[in-house]
Amino acid sequence: MKNLEKWQTVNSQIVIDHPWCQVRRDEVKLPNGNTIDDYFVYIKPDVAMVLPITKNGEIICVRQYRHAFGDFFIELPAGHFDPTQEAAENAAMRELKEETGYIADNIQKIAVLHDKPGKDTNQIHLFLAENVIKVEEQNLDSTEDIEVLLIPKIDVFNKIIQGNISVAETVAALFMGLK
Hints:
Blueprint: E1 8-18, E2 21-29, E3 35-43, E4 46-54, E5 58-66, E6 71-75, E7 78-81, H1 88-100, E8 102-103, E9 108-114, E10 123-134, E11 147-152, H2 153-161, H3 168-177
């Protein structure tokens, strides 16, 4: 394996500091001596994502509008959290219950994925929850409008191939969790 060197941060400053969006501008020195004076990094909170499966073998998904693309997407339940304030497992259970009304007795960590490590700072903590049951109605945030879908396991990969499920972290989670 080639011996690669890390980039050196020469200067760093926050150029957008808003509760919903933080952007850092770094000046970095590359191992070859070249300098990039405007390398932008998006500071994003970690995400807890859960792959919930009912005892009947149905995957609980959520369908919601995503404004950046102006369309609706099918995803797994997930949400942002601050790992210094809340354990990833607790965030995953909370998001599952809030977005779908389902709960799980326990969840198992599958993986920690890196969203876009070239530009984003967040990680996606992925969990598997089996034998989930519905206990209440959704408890959505004021900015959420979510449809809950129960998709039989047997149909999931066809939905991915057909492009009905196309969000990268959801696709990765489904392949990893249903291996």
